[in-house]
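>> received
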Amino acid sequence: MNNVFARMRSALHIIKKIGFRPGMDEYEKRKLGIFNLLNFFGLISGLLVPFAGFFNQDHLPLLAWVVAFSPFFISFSVLMGNYYGKYETARVCYFIFYPLITGLVYATGMDVGIQLFFILYGLLSVFFLKRIAHVLFSFSLSMLLYFMVSVVNYRYTLYLKDSNYPFYVFNNALAVAFIFYSLYLIKQENARYQQSLLRANSELNLNNIEINQQKTEIDQKATLLEAQTQQLSELNAVKNKLFSVISHDLKGPLYALRNLFRNMQQFDTPANEIKMIIPDVVNDLNYTTGLMENLLQWAKSQMQAEAIHKQVIDLRELIEKATRLLKLQADSKQVYLETRTDKPVYVYADIDMVDLVIRNILSNAIKFTPSRGNVSLKLNKAASFAEVIIEDTGMGMNAEALEKIRRKTYYTTKGTANESGTGLGLMLCQEFLSKNGGRMHIESEEGKGTTFSFTLPVSN
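>> returned
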């Protein structure tokens, strides 16, 4: 039994799809499917009614047989019209010939109980026909025939309810069944169509959300790419400027050392002259060593931009270490170093970066402080940060030099003992402090000294 129903559903599905074309609107497909089913059942009724007439005991005229077979021929013609794509023509034929054939039955003087079909034709014409002229014509034709049959008092020669009451009831029941089934199909297909629209709308909303998300991601990536491009351009500009300065500053000490050894080899330079030259060469080599160290740290910071290893560190210990390391540089210039770090102060930062910051700032302070000058280091602690202050009584800086530091413009400078500097160390200090959540502040007045201070978040 299930197999039979499955085959029936499959057959009805094939009939519904008669006349479907690729690219046809979904709503039109559903209307065409309903119309095909109605014509299929009209075709079946055009076979069943004549078959039932064979069992009638009374003699039926030829016109009655023509009327009985007409649904078969009309519905078959409509299905063929749909098959060949003549949709509107097929529908107009349906809503003209069915009412006319039905009215012809009553015109011959027979009341067979099928006047309800006129209402069916009128309702269906409104739903199926596209052109308003076709709708008005078909609906008016059906309603006019219904009015003439049901309202106008006309005496028929044959009343089917008197001669064959069961057949009369069957005709009325068939009309009611067709009306119900037609409205049911229309309602069902409209509901399905609305559901498909809701699904399509839901999918469209999801697609829009996805597209907006993708657009947002693309915009974010474009913004990030633009920022990275800008950073890369700035970095390239910095690199070119920096290396042009460094390449010039590296040549001096290396050439001086080369010339010293060449003179010693070729001209047998006396020891007392060599002894006089060596301090200058040592100063140059000290500068070169510091420059190379800063350069390596800068290159490392560019290659490992995110490689920050934070830990709890004692700032007092780092300051004392840097002071011991640079004491020789200070003593050679007779610069007095003073540290005021009474208690340990713990911060959460990268120890190597903070160590480089302290050494660079302290080395700069010594470099630009004249003989018998003072450099002091103070360590203060607040609620959420620690502050290191390095103050010197050196050359100081004018407004132009301070602006160059803020704009990270690199240039060669000379200390009080003719030591060279490029500003690379200060650039590293600013960058490393920023990565560790700190800030650097500079106050300076030309001829009166400079105060460098920086902060770092304390450890909890």
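>> The mean pLDDT is 80.
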